[in-house]
Each structure stands twice: as C-alpha cells, then as structure tokens.
Amino acid sequence: MWPEPVERIAALLRAAHVEGRIEELALGVDSPEGTFFAAGFEADGSTVVAIVPGAREVDRGKLAAASDSPGLRPAPAPAFPFESARVLVDQTALAGRIVWLEAGSGRHIVGLAPQLLIGLTQAETADLLLDQQSGGG
C-alpha cells in the first residue's frame, strides 16, 4: 500500500480510468530522465502551475502571457493534480512518451502520457521555458 498522499493519486487515476505508473524511488536515486516539475505562482488570488522539464527554468514573462496573469509571484504549487489551479504544460512535454512528476512525496513519482496529463489536469500547452542562450526573461 502506498503512503496516504500517494494513494490519493493512485485512487484518482483509477477513478478517472487513466493509465499511469506510480513508482517509489530508491534512496539516493534521482528522478528518471524526462522528469518534469511543477512550479507554482500566484496572481490576483489565483494559482498558476507551470509544468516544465526538471533541468530547465520557467520564463515568468512567457508564463504570464500564456496564462494572461500579469504580476505572477512565486507561490507553493498545490499537490498533483493541481486542483483549483490553472495548469500550463511546456510544449516540450508533447515530444515524449511519458511525463514524470512528483506524486505525493519526494520519493514517489507518477508517469503519464502527455495527453493524459493534459486531460487529467485540464492543462494548456505553451512555450514556458527560459531561453538558455539569453539567460534572462
């Protein structure tokens, strides 16, 4: 049996009839390649979650434009599936077979096909990444 926060995610996947994988990482093992992270932001009392590749940074200007949320400030991201938040997934997620995200604890991850992630979280896709060559944004 999974820890309670992870079991909640497993129950959500079962109830939504969504095929996904939940895995526990061994101690000292990093997340697998293809892991994305959820960055939380707030603007005018609303929460915006940006899902981007783990090795990249969110371009707040791009996120603000894509979410029509000027004045974004960093804030804690709600737990997956990001209820009550507007969710935007970086378009690079569409290129892979599976998107891995933290699932209820720092040692558990959930893997979903990109289109299932988008459907489950009612997300939109956009270019959200800080340009690596400019280093600013």
Give a written overview of the molecule.
This protein has a 5-stranded mixed β-sheet with strand order 4-2-3-5-8, covered by helices on one side. Strands 1-7-6 form a 3-stranded antiparallel β-sheet. 20% of the residues lie in helices and 29% in strands. It has helices spanning 4-15, 60-67, 114-121, and strands at residues 21-24, 36-43, 46-53, 73-74, 85-90, 99-102, 108-112, 124-126. The longest helix has 12 residues, at 4-15. It is globular, with a radius of gyration of 15 Å. With 137 residues, the chain is of the alpha/beta class.
Kindly list the characteristics that best describe this protein:
137 residues; alpha/beta; three-stranded antiparallel beta sheet; 3 helices; 8 strands
Cα-atom radius of gyration: 15 Å
Q: Strand count, sense and closure of the main sheet?
A: 5 strands, mixed
How far the N terminus sits from the C terminus, by CA atoms, comes to 43 Å
Secondary-structure element order, N to C: HEEEHEEEEHE
Helicity range of the residues? 10-25%
**Mass-distribution shape:** globular
* Poorly predicted sequence stretches spanning 5 or more consecutive residues: none
Structural class: alpha/beta
Q: What is the mean pLDDT?
A: 91
Topology:
Elements (H helix, E strand, L loop, with lengths): L3 H12 L5 E4 L11 E8 L2 E8 L6 H8 L5 E2 L10 E6 L8 E4 L5 E5 L1 H8 L2 E3 L11
